[in-house]
């Protein structure tokens, strides 16, 4: 029963949230590669670059938008400054669309 539930769950794009996603082969290390037909991006599900849950990203961005500096948040939550700037850039791009 549980395997049926997992099987029926649609894979969502980690960039745009679309379910118009296909498997796109495997990496050299054997991990499943996915491709989003909506935003034309590729990713490995559960890859090391996606280790922070969306809730954490949203919380960090909200804290910064409320006035705390990126450097302070980076130290407090032990998240690299570059990663936080990337999240802020993603938010800015999404707001412009």
Strand-residue fraction? 5-15%
Apparent shape: elongated
Taking pLDDT < 50 over at least 5 consecutive residues as the criterion, the unreliable ranges are 1-8
Strand-pairing-aware structural class: alpha+beta
Distance between the termini: 40 Å
Question: How many structural domains does the protein architecture include?
Answer: 2
Q: Radius of gyration, rounded?
A: 16 Å
Number of separate strands? 3
Organism: Sulfurisphaera ohwakuensis
Protein name: Transposase
GO molecular function: DNA binding; transposase activity
InterPro entries: Homeodomain-like_sf, Transposase_27_IS1, Transposase_8
Topology:
Layout: H1 2-8, E1 21-26, E2 32-36, E3 42-44, H2 54-65, H3 70-77, H4 81-96
Antiparallel strand pairs: 1-2, 2-3
GO biological process, one term: DNA transposition
Protein name: Transposase
GO molecular function: DNA binding; transposase activity
What features would you describe in this structure?
With 97 residues, this protein is of the alpha+beta class. The chain has two domains: 2-46, no CATH class; 52-96, Arc Repressor Mutant, subunit A (Orthogonal Bundle). It has helices at residues 2-8, 54-65, 70-77, 81-96; strands at 21-26, 32-36, 42-44. Strands 1-2-3 form a three-stranded antiparallel β-sheet, with no helix packed on it. The radius of gyration is 16 Å and the shape is elongated.
